[in-house]
Amino acid sequence: MPLATPRPLRRELERALPSRPFAVRFWDGSELSANAPPGSPVFTVRSPAAVAHALRAPGQLGIGRAYVDGSLGVDDIEATIQLLEHWKPPALSVRDKGRLMAAALAGTGLTRPPRAPASELRLRGGRHTRERDALAVRHHYDVSNEFFRLFLDESMTCSCAICSRGAATLEEAQRTKRDLVCTKLALREGETLLDVGCGWGSFALHAAQTYGVRVVGITLSPSQAELARRRVSEAGLEERVEIRLSDYRALEGETYDAIASIGMVEHVGSNQIDVYARTLASLLKPGGRLLNHGIARLRHTDPEAGPFSERYVWPDAEPLHLSVVQGALERAGFETHHVEDFREDYSETLRHWARRLDENTDEALRLAGPERFRVWRLYLRAARNGFDVKFTSIYQVRCSLR
Predict the structure, then answer these.
(1) Residue among 114, 105, 109 nearest 72 (CA)
(2) Nearest alpha-carbon partner for 29 in 1, 7, 61
(3) Residues 357, 150: contact at Cβ < 8 Å?
(4) pTM
């Protein structure tokens, strides 16, 4: 079989995109140069498989697959994100699209489409069933605890830090966040607290140690639960903190003085948001307090999530609009007392995480493998861009049961 050549594709790309703020290097060493200032991103098409991915799933998913499996490289992820955010390619006629497709097919030399990367997850069945939610959470978190330790702060807190109130380090900013939640909930010694989506236990430990409350923390990630329980034991807090592997919908017949839900509501889904609100209300004593902390979409014209995030990062994540979440809380019997946004704080948090991951590249590759490493390098920057361009924000809502 003759060696695949990118010449037809390169020629058609140059004709269809006469003005292009990026360059493309192909597997044979040839290049489609950028006609833009220096510093424009460079895409490296390392093999015909990258073209085949784009043909099989045109758009974000196909390009994402090529990036994850390594057949497509980018020299500057942040510049690439800015390009995708701002550059508008020219409209192509049906004839031009056909020529590009034919050139791409001629250039691959492949007899069958490449397989999707091993790290891609395709969930089946109805969205936000208990079983499917557990699979989604485990796909995201069960990379390895050691992998997350590479870029999170020493407390292993995987949610927005409060950087805007004088913190000099990420560790200080996360302590500020944990204490702010406790303060907003007005926790008192001897009270009971439910930590929904407790992660590796950092907030549960802080609330028990600093405020003397008894805490039940729940997570759907076995690796998180294992480490959280070990940290509770090491701190000597077994009588005050219990970590459970549980869905919030499985909690029945229990009551608490306060509930903290930190970074969890964005994974509940529009078809379960009323169930979520009613469940939390049913778990609170009369007058009990709730602090709901989560990402929200800002524009009503934007989709809930793109296909790349759905398959590789956060399957089934649905950052709902603040008004949707508030409506559900109100229908469940909550009275809202205070709403505060931390959009810029989350952008800064993600900047810290991305830098730390880059500083630990070799170990991250060893722990997670090249596919997952590439996914997380892209995700941390794309998520930060979402906050910077006001696609998303994050809100803390303090309310109580009427």
Answers:
(1) 114
(2) 7
(3) yes
(4) 0.94
